[in-house]
TrEMBL record:
The gene is PDIL2-1. GO terms for cellular component: endoplasmic reticulum. This is PDIL2-1 protein. Gene3D superfamilies: Glutaredoxin. GO terms for molecular function: protein disulfide isomerase activity. Keywords: Signal.
């Protein structure tokens, strides 16, 4: 009986992999496009590369894409290396948030559970060629998994972490992050680099290869009090704590004009609803949830206060889990 149960379990697993989803996931699409949701999602163990559209019922561009996307599903329904799926973001907001989707429609390849944004024409043939190329090149060597460094080239001097779609803080990240999406060729790039580095150091971050003798560790509570005095704002601290000497928050930068993948990632990330916003823009990222702080003041005093507010140590901010006692 035990062997029978194992066999049935494996058979069901294989069936799920071949179809890629479940009838339990609700959505407006039908076979051969699979309605996906958090309960039935192509994770790191999936043998297929998936093309997934993230959409809403109210989005006009989504409705315009639908017949072309259905045609894509028909053309690739017999390709065992590719799955074509769709997520209704009105229903499954958690999955859409996890993949940083706030504008619609958003098209991504899902490879081993990780997203890769599509920024080409919303036509059947270009989409087909793109996802076939990703499936063909899956697992090949020769590329680098590292993010484009953009403005932050020195591991000895730069405390800002270069980020990209393949390496972006997710729901397993220990720290909260303040992330700047920027254009390295912008006339304001030099000033942005200086401001973001200053912010990173203020919040307690050091360049990864900085000499230990140059590092100046400080307790979190002392750092918060110092920032309040330095930038002239009031902090609301618990009676004890917050404890620890690690950074209050990490600081990252996404170069939006460094390569094609970066352009696609930024185009997807900087689309809010059906509106495209322009870099530079700042996101607050906590437990994988991305919040666009649209048109934030790009100065060190303002960004420091903004970060401390998001951490919950300025009146009106949402108290974060910093280990303090109220």
């Amino acid at each position: 009986m035990r062997w029978l149960l194992v066999f049935v379990s494996l058979a069901l697993s294989a069936c799920s992999e071949s179809t890629g989803g479940s009838k339990k996931c609700k959505g407006s699409y039908a076979n051969p496009v699979v309605n996906l949701c958090s309960e039935h999602w192509p994770d790191a163990k999936s043998t297929r590369v998936w093309m997934v559209v993230f959409y809403t019922s109210w989005c006009g561009h989504c409705r315009a894409l639908e017949p072309k996307y259905k045609e894509l599903g028909k053309l690739l329904k017999n390709d065992k290396s590719i799955g074509i799926g769709a997520v209704d973001c009105d229903i499954d907001r958690a999955t859409c948030s996890k993949y940083g989707v706030s504008g619609f429609p958003a098209l991504k390849a899902i490879v081993s559970g990780k997203g890769k944004s599509y920024n080409g024409a919303r036509e059947t043939e270009p989409m087909k060629a793109w996802i076939e190329g990703i499936a063909k090149n899956r697992g090949t060597k020769g590329g680098s998994a590292k993010c484009a460094v953009g403005l932050f080239k020195s591991r000895v001097k730069d405390a800002v972490v270069p980020l990209c779609e393949e390496h972006f803080p997710d729901d397993k990240a220990k720290n909260d992050w303040l992330v700047l999406f920027y254009n390295s060729k912008s006339s304001a790039s030099t000033d942005l680099k200086e401001v973001l580095h200053r912010l990173a150091v203020d919040l307690g971050n050091d360049p990864p290869d900085m000499s230990k003798s140059l590092k100046k560790p400080k307790k979190k509570r002392e750092r918060l009090e110092s920032l309040a005095e330095k930038y002239d704002f009031a902090v609301d601290l618990p009676k004890k704590g917050p404890f620890g000497m690690d950074a209050l928050a990490k600081v990252g930068g996404v170069c939006c004009d460094c390569n094609e993948d970066a352009v696609a990632f930024c185009a997807s990330s900087l689309r809010i609803g059906e509106e495209d916003v322009q870099a530079p823009q700042v996101f607050w990222v906590s437990k994988g949830h991305r919040e666009l702080l649209k048109d934030a003041d790009m100065s060190a005093p303002s960004l420091n206060k903004l970060a401390v507010t998001k951490l919950g140590f300025v009146s009106g901010g949402a108290r974060a889990s910093q280990g303090g006692e109220l």
